[in-house]
Design a protein that fits this description.
Layout (H helix, E strand, L loop, with lengths): L10 E10 L10 H7 L6 E3 L5 E5 L6 H21 L3 E3 L17 H10 L1 H5 L5 E6 L3 H11 L3 H8 L4 E2 L2 E2 L5 H6 L5 E2 L7 H13 L10 E2 L1 E4 L4 E4 L8 H22 L13 H14 L4 E3 L6 E3 H11 L1 H7 L2 H13 L2 H12 L2 H26 L4
Parallel strand pairs: 8-9
Antiparallel strand pairs: 1-3, 1-4, 1-5, 2-3, 5-11, 6-7, 10-11, 12-13
Helix pairs in contact: 2-9, 5-9, 6-10, 9-13, 14-15
């Protein structure tokens, strides 16, 4: 299996969003009319659930370019949805949806439903996924192994799914708990090199486990056709700003890990751990989010995730400066004290007692951000 290399550490992003009735703020099955508006638009794509839509960026060389592209796509998407009587928001789950998913009638998704049974009917979750360009399959597999210990950190930072079917689940990211019940989701295995991965994939094909790479839904997966390593662990974020903060963190971290593999000295990094400890760190991050304690070594020593994030950010200062990511990481560090989305959602519910108010807050966060960016651009171009 050939790995088609792409520009080293280039960026691409996919965001899954919820399609909503603007009055009830309930999910609405709107993907088919949305796609029919402009079938040639490759940036707006279907998902398994008809009440979701995925946007996909172009290949970008840095985070500001990625941000500009995502903003443009979301503005276009918002306009198209408004014309169809819908609105959009982003979070890992919809807080009060209490119905089964309507599967998008595409052969791939219908086959997934047939294979997953009842679980497919419940799969109404949204993620933000980041692709990072890799020079070779061997580099992708090496970075994949080095990045695995950081996945619970990314899960805690991105947690935005505390509610499910009208209930507070007590989890920061219930999306991760639900997806862990599906057979091709969750923690990725560790491979020695690209050949080791291709041997696994050939075996999985022969056994009828998988047909194509996209049948793998691990939280980290190589994408040989794109020449990327795809980071899939993160909940969808209510704002573009938060998505870009996470993207800058992942981008800086991957570049730094690659430089470390080439001999760069660093003061702090996380090391691979036994499978049971990996699972425990996943559970803690999904359960308690930024208040979780992360197990750092095989002796069971643990520290608050917030402290570990700060250590990682300190380690990434030089690399982030080189990549132009410093301002995004500064915002990410401030957000540790201000609260991630799961915290904000719970605050809204505690003050209003209404899950509809929670969804309204998610809608307004994105709308307000797009409006601000629109005014900023208008001033920059001399329109105002």
């Amino acid at each position: 299996m050939e790995f088609k290399s792409s520009p080293e550490f280039s960026l691409g992003m996919e965001i899954e969003l919820q399609l909503l009735n603007p009055d009830t703020l309930q999910l609405v099955d709107g993907i088919l009319p949305l796609l029919a508006q402009n079938p040639e638009n490759s940036w707006i794509q279907p998902e398994c659930n008809q009440a979701m839509v995925e946007i996909a960026s172009q290949v970008c060389s840095n985070i500001p370019e990625l941000e500009a592209n995502i903003v443009a796509i979301l503005r276009d998407l918002k306009t198209r949805c408004q014309a169809l009587g819908m609105t959009i928001c982003a979070a890992g789950t919809h807080p009060f949806c209490d119905r089964f998913a309507s599967i998008t009638p595409i052969p791939r998704y219908l086959a997934q439903q047939a294979g997953s049974g009842y679980l497919a009917d419940l799969m109404m979750t949204c993620a933000v996924q980041l692709h990072v360009g890799m020079p070779s399959g061997d580099v992708a597999i090496d970075i994949m192994g080095r990045l695995k210990p950081y996945l619970p950190i990314l899960l805690a930072l991105s947690a935005s799914s505390p509610f499910w079917w009208g209930h507070d689940t007590s989890f920061a990211s219930f999306r991760q708990r639900f997806l862990s019940s599906l057979r091709t989701y969750g923690i990725c295995p560790t491979f020695k090199n690209w050949q080791d991965f291709t041997n696994f994939f050939a075996t999985a094909q022969n056994a009828g486990m998988l047909e194509i790479i996209r049948d793998i839904h691990w939280d980290l997966r190589p994408q040989p056709d794109f020449g990327t390593l795809e980071v899939r662990v993160m909940d969808a974020q209510p704002t573009i700003k938060e998505s870009m903060m996470l993207a800058a963190f992942v981008h800086s971290l991957i570049v730094d890990l690659h430089r470390y593999s080439q001999g760069k000295q660093t003061e702090f990094f996380l090391t691979p751990l036994p499978w049971l400890i990996e699972k425990e760190n996943y559970f803690r991050a999904s359960r308690w989010g930024l208040d979780a304690h992360y197990i750092e070594d095989e002796q069971g020593n643990s520290r608050p995730i917030k402290n570990i994030v700060k250590d990682i950010l300190n380690t990434l200062i030089e690399t982030a400066d080189t990549l132009g990511n410093s301002s995004y990481l500064f915002q990410l560090e401030k957000r540790l004290d201000q609260g991630a989305s799961y915290i904000r959602q719970r605050r809204v519910f505690e003050s209003t007692g209404s899950l509809k108010a929670v969804v309204a807050s998610l809608v307004s966060e994105l709308e307000a951000e797009l409006a601000i960016k629109s005014r900023q651009e208008a001033v920059a171009y001399g329109w105002l």
